[in-house]
Write a structure and sequence with these properties.
single chain, alpha/beta, 4-stranded mixed sheet, 30% helix
């Protein structure tokens, strides 16, 4: 989106004072949570949230925002339990089976900007090992791989500043993404829809491939063997 910049940080010094902090998904939640502590980033993230900063966790990042993560079957490591960042009233337990779904969901309700999106439909996907117990979910997954379900998901702080869920691809939903950005003070520019941007990038890639290869020979290999 115009006027929006996303950057990765590895140290507290690089963090600075951003408009928001995002903890993305990960295949190694416990190891990455320990990394946050080892690098000294965990406490600045906590302090940022407690001072009114906006913090978002998706999937593994969502698990980290909770009170604790339990791994009784040692799915990820030899540890049975690890304290989370304590920013959301949830706890997670790892399971032996991985959940992998294309999903459709609906915003249920929530404080602040989330409440304004009540009833909004979202698309994304789930890929995670854990089950997170939530008290007041703001999201309801209504469909997984085309089959109807009723699966509450997500948690948020009372002021709506800290929130998370399991739905990957959440920010590819244009209306949702822009509503969240506006809550950060962003002013809408002339951005294109995510689907349009993706198609444009695929076409640029196809043009680059066609310009670099002898496509008549490729066609002969493909179609004539």
């Amino acid at each position: 989106e115009p006027g929006v910049r996303v950057r990765y940080v590895r140290t507290p010094e690089e963090l600075g004072r951003p408009s928001a902090i995002l903890l993305p998904g990960t295949k190694s939640t416990l190891a990455d949570l320990e990394w946050l502590h080892q690098t000294g980033l965990a406490q600045p993230v906590i302090d940022f949230a407690r001072s009114g900063g906006r913090v978002v966790g998706i999937c593994g990042g969502y698990q980290m925002l909770g009170q604790r993560i339990e791994d009784p079957l040692h799915v990820e490591s030899g540890q049975s339990r690890l304290a989370g960042l304590g920013l959301l009233p949830v706890h997670t337990q790892f399971l032996s089976e991985k959940a992998t779904y294309q999903a459709r969901a609906e915003v249920q309700d929530g404080p602040g900007w989330l409440g304004e999106l009540k009833g909004m439909s979202l698309e994304g996907y789930e890929i995670h090992m854990g089950r997170t117990d939530v008290r007041a979910p703001w999201l309801l997954i209504r469909q997984r791989n085309g089959s109807p379900v009723h699966a509450p998901d997500g948690s948020c702080s009372p002021d709506g500043c800290v929130w998370g869920c399991y739905l990957h691809g959440l920010f590819a939903n244009d209306e949702f993404r822009r509503a969240w950005l506006r809550s950060l003070g962003w002013r809408a520019g002339r951005g294109v829809a995510q689907a349009v941007a993706l198609q444009q990038s695929i076409e640029r890639l196809a043009d680059a491939v066609e310009g670099a290869l002898k496509m008549d020979e490729v066609d002969e290999i493909v179609w004539q063997g």
